[in-house]
Every structure is written in C-alpha cells, then in structure tokens.
Amino acid sequence: MSETGSHNDVPEQNLPSEHGAHGGDVAVPDDPFANPGHPPHEFRRQDIDERAAKHSERVTAGLFGLSMLGTIAFIACFVIFPVDKIVFIFPFGNVSALNFSLGLTLAVALIGIGAGAVHWARTLMSDEEFSDDRHSAGADDALRENVEQQWIQGAKESGFGRRKLIRNTMFGALTLVPLAGVVILRDLGPLPEDKLRHTLWSKGKVLINQNTNKPLRPEDVVVGSLTFAMPEGLEESQEDFQEQIAKAALMIIRIKPEDIKDKRERDWAHQGIVAFSKICTHVGCPISLYEQQTHHVLCPCHQSTFDLADGARVIFGPAGHALPQLRISVNDEGNLVALGDFEEPVGPAFWERG
To answer: Which CATH class is domain 195-338?
Structure first.
C-alpha cells in the first residue's frame, strides 16, 4: 500500500520557493519600512530670480505697513467716534460706529502682521528640509554648538539682516500694535482722581433711615440694634444712586458708653450711638451681620470681622484696616446729623494706601 498524505497536506509544488514554476527567480519585495529620504529640493522662483525676491520683499513690507496703518486707524477711530454713535452697515444693520471701527482696524493690524510673516516664510526664508537623528534630552557641548550653528545659519538664510525693508516694517508693526491695547484702556472710564476720597456726607447732613426714609433720631436707636442710614437728599430714583450709596452707606449702632474702648470713637459718637461705614475694607462687600453681645460685625463675603466697640478694628479675616467712622451729633430739630465727611476713604484699601 502506498503512502499518501492527508487532505490537509500542501503539495510540495505549491510551497513558496526562491524559484518560479519554470525555475526562474522570484522577486523579493522591498522593505516597507525603509526610509525613503527627502524628495529632491525644488527651488522657488525667488531662489533663482532676484527680481522675484525683491517683489516678495516689497509685498511683505507692504503687509507690515498695512498693519501699522491699521493700528494708527484704530487709535484715530477711538478718538473720533463717540460711544453712543449708531450707524447702519449692510448686512449687519444698526451697529455701534465705535465698536465696528475698532474691530475692523484691529483686525487689519493683526492680519497684516500674520500675513506678512507667512508670506516672508513661504517666499524668502529657506525651505530646504533636512533630517537629524533623535538626541537624548541632555545636550552635550557638541550638540549645543550644532544648535547654535543652525540658529546662525537660519538667521542668515531668512534674510533678516540683509533685507532691511522687511526688518524695519516688521519692527514698526510690532511696536505699534501694543499701542492699541494701551489706548483701549482709556475706555475703562475717567480717572478716579480724588473722587474716591469723598462721599455725600458733609457737615449738617441728616442721617436718613434707609428702611423708613425718615430722619433718624437718638430715641429711634436702641442698645444692641443695627440700623442702616444714608445722607439726606439721596433718593433711590437718582441715576447715580448706586454709585453714591456704595460710598456713603452707614451702619448705626448704639453701644453703652462704658463699653466703648476707643477714645476717639467715644468722642465721635452721640450718647453711645456710633456711625461706621457699611463697606468692607477688603473688597467692598456690604456688611450686615451684627453680634449684639460682642459688638462684632461680620462681612458675609469673606468673614472679615470688626470690633465696633474698639474703633471697628479688624480682629479676623482678610480686611486690611478698620472701618472708617463718621462723626455725628444732633441738630436743633433733634435729628442725628453728620459733622463732616469721612476722614479717610471708605471701602477696599488697595488703591489709596501709600
């Protein structure tokens, strides 16, 4: 009986071989992971034609010059157009002339720099590719010297030192663009000057109860109570009410005279009735939490705590200094009145303390 292979056996003639069916050699495929290398470098027109290079230089300088004009126009528009001027611009409709002009001119200034840099890189800077082996993170002296030489070579090939027109216009554009940011800071509003140092309080101004809108009298303030007051003549219907009350708001507390530790506080009070600014000296939050037994008042924002029996000094929290006190007395009609303005600015301390 002859030997036969199983049905899974592959005939010998079907096995791969270095020879073909007729004895010829079979081609071995190339290594698919071989490094193909860089394609041959193709020179640009600017690389071989100096007139084309000069044209690209002028275009790049023109884009940088356009950026400078955009910055100058930005500053001019900021000065020329009033805030409330509305114009119709198709297809946007009615828009603010100031906002539209500032956005348009700033876009021109920034796009000019970007387009100029891109055109310079694509037409004049060297575009020849080269590869280098990966190095370890730590650089030895030879590698540092190699990088330095590459930097020098790159600067030379960019034409930065040779093409003065591009260099000067680029410096001009980069110098002018930040001016747009400096000028727009003016839009934050008028300078405060000494307005933050003054409130509506003055000699003879009656203390008005904010809850009843009636003048405060000494008998209205009992020991342990907390009352909020504002200057006479200030109405909630006024356009600048929030601005004024943010500086002039008062806390009125009555403390037994023998419990007041600070001499000046006692002298500025009336029969134990003291008036302190309601504005926290940390970040300007309104203070409203009063502890009757300890005479402590707490700011709800960051828990700064002030002792109203000891000149409203800070005993806890991030506030920088004591609450300003308003000197008060009583007029001929029996109403509580101020004897002047605060002697120091109210509110946060970061802007007025030298």
So the answer is: mainly beta
Residue 64: count of CB within 10 angstroms of its CB: 27
What CA–CA distance (Å, rounded) separates 182 from 167?
24
- Is 169:68 a contact under the CB 8 Å cutoff? yes
pLDDT tens digits along 247-284:
999 999 999 999 999 999 999 999 999 999 999 999 88
Domain boundaries, the chain: 45-129+148-188, 195-338
Give the integer Cα–Cα distance in Å for 305 and 316: 5
Residue 208 β-bridge partners: 215, 230
- This prediction has a pTM of 0.51
In angstroms, how far apart are the furthest CA atoms of the chain? Answer: 142
Detail the DSSP E strand segments found in the chain: 86-89, 93-96, 207-209, 226-231, 250-254, 273-277, 289-291, 296-298, 305-307, 313-316, 325-326, 328-330, 336-338
